[in-house]
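Workshop exercise sheet. Pairs work together: one partner reads the sequence aloud, the other fills in the structure field after running the prediction. Swap roles for the next sheet.
Pair: D.N. / O.F.
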Amino acid sequence: MRPEPKPLILIVEDEPELAKLIAIHLENAGMNTQVYDRAAHAMKFLGHNFANLLLLDINLPDQSGFALLEELKKADKVIPTIFLTGNSLENSKIQGLEMGGDDYITKPFSYPELVARIRAVLRRAESNHDQNVTRNVRVSDKPFEICGAKVNPERLEVEFPAGTVVKIGRKELGILAHLDANRGSVITRKALIHAVWGIHADVKSRSLDQYIVRVRNLFKEHGLSLDTFRTVHGVGYIFEP
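Structure field:
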């Protein structure tokens, strides 16, 4: 039986001794760590690598932890985050949590509590992903209509006008959901791949083309047209129903 992979915790903390101590305790608790003392270095790492959780100091030399989290959100990089700070003011805690932080720990803290809180956030993140069909669709999402067909994410089904109900693949469902959510807007190929497969997915354009052909053929086979889903040469697509 293969051992469970160790979660990677990205520690962004400008106090070298504290960062070192945190890393030692987390690694003793069965986690992998990567340490940075600047927001820019952490952002660069996350641009090319996956981490299970971000342990983020609010006061960093180059920018605040709040600013880094905003930058990650703009880049569509979703990562569970626990703020670390010496600031115990309530409004600072509220700001961190309202920005999307999953927890907030005030220095000084006990290392067993830190480990316990990290594990709690990782469990919540894992259970949230259990509902995901693709990166952009959850089984709890409501049905939506597109080009005369009704798409039901919960059952992975498409209902056509004659009453025919057909099962649909997860990626095809993700593509239809992204089109529906971005009507009238140009969608780059990369944006579509990131939306459906995830930001770190290694998906080639040819693979995306194959899934789009399947979606078009499915509608065509049941008497519906996806002509309003057009290719924008050299860029991607646009859906203008």
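Discussion prompt: The chain is about 40% helix and 20% strand. What would you look at next?
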